[in-house]
Structure formats: C-alpha cells, structure tokens
Amino acid sequence: MVAATDRYQASLRIEREIQIAAPLQAAYEALVEQLGPGAEMPDGASMAMKFEAWPGGRWFRDLGNDAGHLWGHVQVIKPPKLIEISGPLFMSYPAVSHLQYRLVEQGGETTLKFVHRAIGELDPEHCEGVQMGWDDQLQRVKRRAEKRS
Questions:
Q1: What is the pLDDT of residues 44-97, one digit of tens each?
Q2: How many CB atoms lie within 10 A of CB 69?
Q3: Nearest CA to 40 among 139, 144, 146, 137?
Q4: Mode of pairing for the β-strands spanning 67-78 and 58-64
C-alpha cells in the first residue's frame, strides 16, 4: 500500500524574469489588469478573476451566483514596483503559496521578476502544469504592456 504522502511533493519554487519594452507604469497597469479582469486561460477564455489592489485585498475567481474560488490575499502592494500575494491559488488541497511580482525600470524598459513558492501536499501534475501557466500569464502581461506604450 502506498502512503498518501508518497503521491505529493512538499514544495515548489518557480522563478521567471522577463524584459518588457514598456515603461514601469504601463507594465504595472498591464500586470494589475492581467491579475483581474484581463486574466485569460491559454485558450483565450476569461478566467473571471477579480483583483482588489490594496493590502488585504482578495484575488479570486468569480463564477457568479455566489460561487468561486479564493486564490489569495494581497500581502504587500507598492505601486508600481511590487505586488505580493499569499494563499492557496488554484490548489484545492492543503497548500499555501506566495507570489511576488517585482518590477524594475531601466532605460525606459521594465524587468518583471516573478517568484512562486508553495508548500503543502502539492499535486505533482499541478507543479508541472503551473510552470507553463505562469509563462503564459507573464507573456500576456508583456504583450499588454508593450501594446499600451
């Protein structure tokens, strides 16, 4: 018999850094839009996300009729340079995540540094798939910001 803990992984760490050919403010606005009403799945369908951009604000998926999924709370927000979120994200099992989006402008361009750390009984399939998901979401921020500027 396999123990339940043998099926899970205990931690996750994903780090990404992307260059955005847009000023800091445009990149920040694109990030906030992507976290909220502009959030899309890889196929382009809306994720119906809500993002309350203040300390303690919720980040959640609103499925209507009082249904949804709490992804996390804003732990730190320092517009336009930093957003940190902590919560379960998409994981409906014993886990907690911390996301950090750090934006740094240099020479009219912005570097977005992203870190996702999680601990708990993590599903290995989620740990694989989430890497592609974050890559897609970050590229959407980049395209949105560059289109704005």
A1: 899 999 999 999 999 999 999 999 999 999 999 999 999 999 999 999 899 999
A2: 15
A3: 137
A4: antiparallel
